[in-house]
């Protein structure tokens, strides 16, 4: 099971607080994968994470090159530090797919520094139309919301068709096929929700929030707990006790656990759930090896729904 670094800025913009010049000095951050089945001189798409890269690839097919920046399944994407390669990739992109919502601010920072007037940017949080819950923060993990992914795919199709009008029919056909797969996934969630409606659940981080919401599950974890984990601050003792009691008192059916943001406090929660015999469902922020968006999210839906059923 991956162990993420415990020191991390809230977003990558924090890492770039010193400006792009400083960012360009950052090295060794790794990342980056390119799928270019059709060769080198087509349209270039850069996605901030491999999840959005997979969505873009489904639409692009062989008619464009898709590069994903954040790809490490064992690191917390919130702590990603952009490097010179990221800058170069973004400066050459025709279409950029970013998550937005503070998740990958390095994209905007670097695009501003890049002299790339032709680039079209798709911002998934913008496309989602999601707003913060009353008094709360926006859950920026919008790729766990299938209707949002359908909209992002449509926006990618429009951007690709504009960048490469000759391939517009290909992009349209690919987008239509992908949308049909997403519609099936949405239908699966709707069907599963009949059995999971109202199911009490605990989380370590808001990552799977939209999926849990679509399944009708009720999050029992104190908001102060998951926010502290996501912000990488200490969980207050009383909040931790309240969270641990969810398991010892068997108040939840499952713990949905973000494998990419772990630390001593999430370890305690995981141990408490296991000790009480509560189902634990691991989820991630990036694509596991060998998966694409649809296979990955279908697996997530199956695992979460199975754990939440009475
Ligand atoms: Zn996250």
How does the overall form come out from the CA principal axes? globular
Lateral strand order in the biggest sheet = 1-3-2-4-5
Our count of helices gives 13
Mean pLDDT over all positions: 88
Label the structural class: alpha/beta
Helix content: 40-55%
Q: Any chance you could write out the topology, listing elements then pairs?
A:
Layout lengths: L11 H4 L4 H6 L7 E3 L7 E7 H11 L3 E7 L13 H9 L2 E4 L7 H8 L6 E4 H5 L17 H18 L4 H29 L3 E4 L5 H6 L3 E2 L3 H9 L5 H12 L5 E5 L5 H12 L3 E5 L9 H16 L2
Parallel strand pairs: 2-3, 2-4, 4-5, 6-7, 6-8, 8-9
Antiparallel strand pairs: 1-3
Helix pairs in contact: 3-7, 3-8, 4-5, 7-8, 8-13, 11-12
The protein binds zinc ion.
Zinc ion (ZN) binds next to loops.
Explain what the structure shows:
The chain has helices at about 10-15, 20-25, 50-60, 85-90, 105-115, 125-130, 145-165, 170-195, 210-215, 225-230, 235-250, 265-275, 295-310, and strands at about 35, 45-50, 65-70, 95-100, 120-125, 200-205, 220, 255-260, 280-285. With about 300 residues, the chain is α/β, with parallel strands linked by helices. The strands form 2 sheets. A 5-stranded mixed sheet has the order 1-3-2-4-5, with helices on both faces. Strands 7-6-8-9 form a 4-stranded parallel sheet, with helices on both faces. Bound molecules: zinc ion (ZN). Zinc ion binds near residues 78, 141 and 205.
Sum this structure up briefly.
With 310 residues, the chain is an alpha/beta fold. It has helices at 12-15, 20-25, 50-60, 84-92, 106-113, 124-128, 146-163, 168-196, 209-214, 223-231, 237-248, 264-275, 293-308; strands spanning 33-35, 43-49, 64-70, 95-98, 120-123, 200-203, 218-219, 254-258, 279-283.
């Amino acid at each position: 099971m991956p162990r993420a670094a415990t020191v991390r800025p809230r977003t990558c913009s924090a890492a770039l607080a010193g400006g792009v010049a400083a960012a360009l000095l950052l090295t060794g951050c790794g990342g980056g994968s390119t799928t270019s089945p059709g060769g080198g001189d087509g349209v270039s798409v850069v996605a901030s994470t491999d999840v959005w890269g997979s969505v873009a690839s489904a639409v692009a097919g062989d008619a464009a090159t898709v590069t994903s920046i954040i790809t490490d399944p064992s690191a917390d994407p919130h702590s990603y530090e952009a490097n010179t390669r990221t800058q170069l990739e973004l400066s050459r992109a025709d279409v950029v797919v970013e998550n937005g919502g503070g998740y990958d601010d390095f994209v905007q920072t670097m695009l501003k520094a890049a002299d790339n007037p032709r680039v079209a940017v798709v911002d998934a949080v913008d496309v989602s139309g999601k707003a913060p819950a009353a008094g709360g923060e926006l859950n920026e993990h919008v790729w766990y919301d299938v209707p949002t992914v359908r909209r992002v795919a449509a926006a990618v199709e429009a951007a690709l068709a504009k960048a490469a009008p000759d391939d517009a029919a290909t992009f349209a056909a690919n987008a239509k096929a992908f949308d049909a797969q997403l519609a099936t996934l949405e239908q699966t969630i709707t069907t599963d929700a009949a059995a999971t409606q109202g199911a009490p659940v605990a989380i370590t981080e808001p990552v799977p929030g939209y999926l849990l919401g679509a399944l009708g599950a009720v999050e029992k974890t104190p908001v102060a707990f998951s926010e502290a984990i996501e912000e990488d601050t200490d969980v207050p003792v009383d909040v931790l006790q309240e969270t641990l009691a969810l398991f010892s008192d068997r108040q939840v059916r499952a713990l949905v656990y973000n494998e990419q943001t772990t630390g001593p406090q999430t370890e305690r929660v995981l141990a408490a759930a296991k000790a009480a015999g509560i189902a634990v469902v691991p989820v991630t922020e990036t694509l596991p090896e060998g998966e694409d968006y649809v296979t990955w999210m279908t697996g997530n839906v199956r695992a979460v729904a199975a754990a939440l059923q009475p």
